[in-house]
Amino acid sequence: MPRDLPVGNSRLLVCFDQDYQIRELYFPHVGQENHVNGNHCRFGVYAEPHFSWVGADWKRELNYEEDTLVTRVDLYHPALGLLLTCRDAVDFNEDIFLREIQVDNLRSEARRVELFLSQDFDIFGNSIGDTAIFLSPKRGSRSL
């Protein structure tokens, strides 16, 4: 199924849907095991005194920065009075997913804003496998 906003390199692919939720995450073989496997990886915002998961009640513009594979997602929530500009990328050489979030308070009063990132992984497509560990071959193997 095509996704609205993919970012990746030859070993790591992260795909967002139209609601700006991560729906697919492939590593280390793009196109094999989806480590999200249809679960939700949600993004929430708390702005005193309200909380909202990014979704249907947010106005969203999903694009890429010009001439790049870096996303530019503008999220606006009129009731919260917030504009978020998100940039996502996967490093070209390293298998690292990066996210930058700029928060603009559209109200005149200062207030506390908190961001929440929630992941529900299915490592190798297994709903029991929601935790991962990486032992670098440079450090050698060891028992845990």
What is the CATH first-level class name? Mainly Beta
Any idea what the radius of gyration is?
A: 17 Å
Adjacency order of strands in the biggest sheet: 6-7-8-9
Q: Biggest β-sheet: count, sense, barrel? A: 4 strands, antiparallel
Q: Number of DSSP helices?
A: 0
Please provide the count of β strands: 10
Distance between the first and last residues' Cα: 38 Å
CATH fold category name:
Beta-galactosidase, Chain A, domain 5
In CATH, the architecture is Distorted Sandwich
Q: What do the pLDDT scores average to?
A: 87
Assembly annotation: single chain
Order of helices and strands: EEEEEEEEEE
Class from helix and strand fractions: mainly beta
**Low-confidence blocks of residues:** none
Percentage of residues assigned to helices:
under 10%
Determine the strand fraction and express it as a percent band.
35-45%
Shape: globular
Please give the domain count: 1
